[in-house]
């Protein structure tokens, strides 16, 4: 096999990997559908509060066999501004049996979405009314069952609830919007051997001798918003700690209890750090976390009871590749930012998610040093925010009202961009003033709703700085600066000139960005810093230096969210790669050297891969060598495989997998055969997918039938077969996935179905794949249903049109996904397999190289 370079993207199923973007497993991030029609929708605001809800009590009995509930929800409320005769509750699919009220009702009616209560006489302002509603429901959202008869493991039956954004009305009637708060009680009646968890304090547990059911009574004594009400009940194993006087519980499926301590190890330290950093003591009675089988998201910050994906539990075999630290810190931060104070409406959701994201980075910096904080911000900027803004041209602001669905707000703007806004504020004000302002913000608005201007006012009061322009640029308008930085040295005057150009603003959507920033010059051992203000589309800055600088840096402290293109010589980049106290500078240098094809650049990157003190720079060096794609770069990667940090080993194997080369093939096979870390084996399987050798296919097929913790390797193998697109393997792939549906995590299972569709696309008779994907349209897990829809779009079978058409005519995520799948189905014929695409790319590259070589020969002959 001749040495040919490829650019195959590697997809590895990592859960909360330290070297992986957090977005996949935090809260509801990335669950938002692309709202192409959003502009057609009018602006959304918080609804009027006709009544003030004082208290909600939910007494619920789940039927695990029938997948139904029987419940009585009692609400206490009082009119706010004027007497109220008609009170409308959100109630979806609830079958009302009876209603008892402290004031006489004239009638009640259900619309399927709402329950309307008409009182005989208007309720006077300030008078509290109690209404008890008894009903049954078979929830499709809001409350979910996971039971053995559905295919889940024996002895791990459980239910769980999800409120955000608007799922709570599927299991109890309520006023469902974040501008309403109340105290709550949950009483859950379950078999005696089960555990029932909810918000607040455990009041008591009693067993009814007549029914044999245990009534578990929880009370949340401080008001919180409706979407934070939570119930989890079933068979759980428990771990427990205490920190700062707060009881900390971790509940998980019994089969995961041996690995569970890995995911619980940071919780106590996170609590202690947050209390010190935020300045406000933990405001609730206790803090529990519970893992859910096939949870729809990464985590949900219900007051005192966070629900988590079961994939956050990981085995020791993954070494430090996987970690629950980010998810743990993010959801814990929400207990202050999101629960203690809550956004008034979804346009201000960044006040929940941006804070949780940033304080996750702050904890990383506290635990592992400032470079860890900056590295998290770097990954957010380069992996999420800037691609969305610069590459995709998204100009929506953070505070945005013209969304189609509330979930459209849960994207990069709320999470990493919101986090970056806080980082820029902290950098501008200084850490002490920033902390003081955040403490003021929380204490002033404790147990209430907030909007962005509440934060601005607190920051201004403490700092004395007017911040209107800052918030206007970064929060109320979209975009981010796109900067071109250049420098030149004037030896006669001993002057360094730095030129900064900024892209023109888009009228009505983005603004000209103005901000302070540091410029730095390294002259020998001397470091010269200058603070400047960017205020125009183009500016020149001049600095007197003793000698020509070795390295010039823009924003060395990493305080501005911007795409910065700063052309530098290869020699300067090599020196920058050696700056011991500038981790971000080294990352930038590694990335830039990856675009150079010289042996010197490869040598510098190889040295960084083997010697840099920060793992993130070694990862960047590995990626850069993969981007270089030369034989020397491959040799450097092969030589750099021995790393004590598994995160770096993983990246090296991933980058070796980008090559199409005999040496790479042999190493990938060796990794599959000998490596103990399942995540690294998964990377090797993905790299093998492009190789036509039968042995490669056999290795992948063997992994498909393998057993590993949470069956990571089977998922990786299914992904690899999807990339391989070998029609001969379609039947075995479908059989394995059908047989192992509930052995594999639902979210990962859904992700591989796109590849199944692509494999089926290569078949002349696509029936077996079409029928398999059609079956999964009824799966209880939405991630699986969405994956099946996408797979049908990739399949290219016109007989799938009726299925997709019916789904496209509905609403929600499945409808949006079905519309895209129909577009794909109606598009061009089958794409070539990935390996063929790789070879075509390499042939094009070889032709270009041949032309360049011919040109050089002709130039030499001419001289």
Automatic annotation (TrEMBL):
Keyword field contains Repressor: no
Domain spans labelled Aminopeptidase N-like N-terminal: 55-228
Class in the EC hierarchy, top level: hydrolase
Organism the protein comes from: Botrimarina mediterranea
Residues in Peptidase M1 membrane alanine aminopeptidase domain copies: 264-474
Signal peptide: 1-23
Record's protein name: Aminopeptidase N
Keywords on record: Aminopeptidase, Coiled coil, Hydrolase, Metal-binding, Metalloprotease, Protease, Signal, Zinc
CDD domains: M1_APN_like
């Amino acid at each position: 096999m001749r040495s040919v370079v490829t650019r195959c993207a590697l997809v590895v199923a990592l859960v909360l990997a330290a070297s992986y973007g957090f977005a996949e497993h935090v809260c509801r991030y990335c669950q938002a559908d692309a709202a192409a029609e959003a502009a057609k929708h009018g602006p959304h605001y918080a609804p009027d509060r006709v009544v003030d809800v004082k208290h909600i009590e939910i007494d619920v009995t789940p039927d695990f066999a029938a997948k139904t509930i029987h419940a009585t929800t009692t609400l206490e409320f009082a009119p706010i501004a004027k007497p109220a005769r008609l009170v409308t509750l959100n109630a979806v699919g609830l079958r009302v049996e009876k209603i008892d009220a402290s004031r006489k009702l004239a009638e009640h009616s259900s619309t399927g979405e709402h329950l309307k209560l008409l009182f005989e006489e208007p309720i006077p302002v300030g008078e509290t009314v109690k209404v008890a509603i008894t009903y049954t429901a078979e929830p499709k959202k809001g409350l979910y069952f996971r039971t053995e008869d559905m295919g889940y493991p024996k002895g791990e039956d459980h239910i769980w609830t999800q409120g955000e954004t608007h799922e709570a009305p599927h299991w109890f009637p309520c006023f469902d919007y974040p501008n309403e708060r109340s105290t709550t009680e949950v009483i859950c009646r379950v078999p005696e051997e089960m555990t029932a968890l909810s918000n607040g304090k455990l009041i008591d547990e009693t067993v009814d001798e007549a029914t044999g059911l245990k009534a578990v009574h929880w009370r949340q004594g401080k008001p919180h918003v409706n979407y934070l009400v939570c119930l989890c009940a079933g068979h759980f194993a428990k771990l427990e700690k205490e920190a700062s006087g707060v009881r900390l519980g971790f509940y998980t499926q019994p089969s995961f209890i041996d690995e569970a301590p890995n995911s619980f190890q940071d919780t106590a330290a996170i609590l202690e750090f947050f209390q010190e950093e935020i300045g406000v003591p933990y405001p609730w009675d206790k803090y529990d976390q519970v893992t859910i089988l096939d949870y729809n998201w990464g985590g949900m910050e219900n007051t005192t009871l966070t629900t988590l994906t079961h994939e956050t539990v990981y085995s020791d075999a993954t070494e430090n590749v996987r970690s629950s630290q980010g998810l743990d810190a993010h959801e814990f931060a929400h207990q202050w930012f999101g629960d203690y104070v809550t956004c008034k409406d979804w346009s201000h959701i960044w006040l929940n998610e941006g804070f949780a994201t940033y304080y996750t980075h702050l904890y990383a910096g506290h635990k592992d040093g400032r470079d860890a904080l900056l590295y998290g911000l770097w990954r957010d900027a380069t992996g999420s925010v800037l691609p969305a803004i610069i590459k995709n041209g998204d100009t929506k602001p953070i505070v945005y009202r013209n969304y189609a669905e509330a979930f459209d707000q849960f994207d990069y703007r709320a999470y990493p961009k919101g986090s970056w806004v806080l980082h820029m504020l902290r950098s501008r004000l200084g850490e002490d003033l920033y902390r003081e302002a955040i403490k003021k913000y929380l204490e002033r608005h404790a147990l209430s709703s907030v909007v962005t201007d509440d934060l601005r006012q607190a920051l201004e009061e403490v700092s004395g700085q007017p911040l209107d322009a800052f918030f206007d640029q970064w929060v109320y308008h979209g975009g981010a600066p796109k900067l071109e930085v250049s420098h030149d040295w004037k030896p006669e005057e001993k002057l360094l000139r730095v030129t900064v150009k900024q892209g023109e603003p888009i009228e009505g959507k983005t603004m000209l960005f103005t901000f302070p920033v540091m410029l730095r010059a390294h002259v020998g051992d001397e470091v010269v810093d200058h603070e400047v203000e960017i205020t125009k589309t183009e500016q020149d800055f001049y600095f007197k230096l003793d000698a020509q600088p070795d390295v010039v840096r823009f924003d060395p402290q990493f305080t501005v969210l911007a795409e910065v293109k700063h052309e530098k010589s290869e020699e300067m980049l090599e020196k920058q790669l050696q700056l011991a106290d500038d981790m971000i500078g080294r990352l930038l240098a590694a990335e830039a050297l990856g675009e150079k094809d010289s042996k010197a650049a490869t040598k510098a990157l190889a040295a960084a891969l083997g010697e840099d003190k920060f793992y993130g720079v070694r990862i960047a060096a590995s990626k850069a060598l993969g981007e270089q794609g030369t034989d020397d770069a491959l040799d450097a990667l092969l030589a750099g495989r021995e790393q004590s940090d598994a995160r770096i080993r993983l990246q090296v194997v991933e980058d070796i997998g980008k090559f199409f080369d005999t040496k790479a093939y042999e190493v990938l096979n060796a990794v599959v055969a000998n490596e103990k870390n399942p995540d690294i084996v998964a990377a090797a399987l993905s790299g093998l997918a492009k190789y036509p050798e039968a042995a490669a296919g056999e290795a992948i097929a063997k992994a498909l039938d393998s057993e590993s913790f949470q069956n990571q390797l089977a998922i990786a193998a299914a992904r690899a077969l999807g990339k391989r697109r070998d029609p001969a393997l379609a039947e075995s792939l479908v059989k394995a996935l059908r047989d192992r549906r509930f052995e594999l995590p639902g979210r990962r299972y859904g992700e591989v179905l796109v590849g199944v569709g692509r494999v089926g696309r290569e078949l002349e008779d696509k029936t077996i794949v079409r029928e398999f994907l059609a079956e999964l349209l009824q799966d209880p897990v939405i991630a699986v249903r969405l994956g099946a829809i996408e797979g049908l779009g990739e399949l290219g079978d016109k007989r799938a049109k009726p299925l997709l058409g019916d789904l496209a005519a509905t609403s929600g995520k499945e409808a949006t996904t079905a519309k895209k799948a129909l577009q794909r189905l109606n598009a061009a014929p089958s794409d070539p397999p990935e390996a063929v695409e790789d070879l075509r790319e390499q042939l094009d590259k070889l032709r270009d190289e041949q032309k360049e070589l011919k040109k050089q020969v002709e130039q030499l002959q001419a001289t």
